[in-house]
Design a protein that fits this description.
Blueprint (H helix, E strand, L loop, with lengths): L2 H26 L15 H10 L6 H13 L13 H36 L4 H15 L2 H15 L18 H5 L2 H18 L1 H14 L3 H8 L4 H13 L1 H24 L5 H10 L3 H29 L1 H6 L2
Helix pairs in contact: 1-3, 1-14, 4-8, 4-9, 4-12, 4-14, 5-9, 6-8, 9-11, 9-12, 10-11, 12-13, 12-14, 13-14
């Protein structure tokens, strides 16, 4: 079997395992989740009707088979709280999460990669000696603490940006694209993006610096210097280009992880995304919605790891051959 086929089957197995664990965890927890949405004054018949509506009256094994069948069809059931399809609720907030994630990730990796290359170029200088501790400090900061610090300074202190949400209450827009590209939406997006970008930039900075220092010891760099090429040209056209490979795979893996890490930042900034929806669903015992949101996060994480494996295999064929 090919390298791609094996990685794809591995991805499917991991997704099945995660889905099964989620199914069992939510159903074997102490207490009946339906009690949060069944009026104590309901008669036995009314209670039974509610259980039938959510499929909770069937044996666990039958519920599991129905769950897998619905999952294969892209259905996650009905939300206990909203009485709406879970998939529709997730799709309504997923664009906010993806926009936050991609904007923060590209900002962190573009500026982090450039800054890491600059630190490698300035190796041994005062600039590097001052910069490295700052990078390590921001990398070690908890994201919730960093978010509250950004809020305290830029929102409550200086008042430059709104403190939470995605739009001013009561604002109307001609279309969804009009809302996303509005100044109001972008101002609300700025602080969550800044928080995540600062939180993420440590990895690309340190990874690019390390890769650059390693590449600069290669023979082709020495040959370029012997030919009299300018140092800047050597850094950008030769060293930086060859140091990007690990950064590309780290980008894909970080994207998947960040979908899950957004839970904290979205909660701090009241950003209406998938992470905040997951927290609210758990707090309100809305297990179908919590399960659906978690499975979507897990799917993105596993899929991006799959993509990272493929990209690394394409950029470095030795990886595919080693697993062959």
């Amino acid at each position: 079997m090919s390298f791609v086929g094996r990685r794809f089957l591995h991805m499917l197995f991991v997704l099945w395992a995660i889905a099964t664990i989620m199914f069992l965890m939510f159903r074997l927890m102490p207490g009946d989740p339906s009690t949060a949405y069944i009026d104590p004054n309901f008669t036995g018949e009314q209670r039974q009707l509610v259980l039938q509506q959510f499929g909770l009256d069937k044996p666990l094994s039958e519920q599991y088979l129905i769950f897998l069948r619905n999952l294969a069809q892209g259905e996650f059931g009905l939300s206990f709280r909203y009485r709406q399809p879970v998939l529709g609720l997730i799709l309504s907030v997923l664009p906010n999460t993806l926009l936050l994630t991609m904007t923060a990730l590209f900002s962190a990796y573009i500026f982090g990669g450039l800054f890491g290359a600059l630190l490698a170029w300035k190796r041994g200088s005062t600039f590097e000696a001052v910069s490295i501790p700052i990078v390590l400090t921001t990398r070690a900061m908890p994201d919730f603490w960093l978010g509250m610090l950004v809020l305290a300074v830029l929102a409550f202190g200086l008042g430059w940006f709104p403190s939470g949400g995605a739009n001013v209450a009561g604002a109307t827009y001609a279309s969804e694209w009009g809302r996303i590209f509005s100044i109001d939406y972008l101002r609300h997006l700025a602080l969550p993006v800044l928080t995540l970008a600062i939180f993420l930039q440590g990895l690309p900075v340190l990874l690019m610096r390390s890769n650059m220092l390693e590449v600069m010891r290669e023979e082709f760099v020495t040959m370029a210097r012997m030919k009299g090429l300018p140092e800047r040209s050597i850094m950008l056209r030769h060293a930086a280009r060859n140091a990007l490979l690990p950064l590309v795979t780290a980008f894909a893996i970080t994207f998947g992880q960040l979908i899950g890490n957004n839970v904290v930042v979205e909660t701090v900034f009241s950003w209406p995304g998938l992470g905040r929806m997951l927290v609210d669903a758990v707090a309100n015992s809305d297990y179908p919605l919590a399960q659906g949101a978690f499975l979507v996060i897990a799917f993105v994480l596993v899929f991006m790891n799959f993509v990272a494996d493929l990209v690394y295999g394409l950029l470095d064929p030795r990886v595919a051959h080693a697993h062959g």
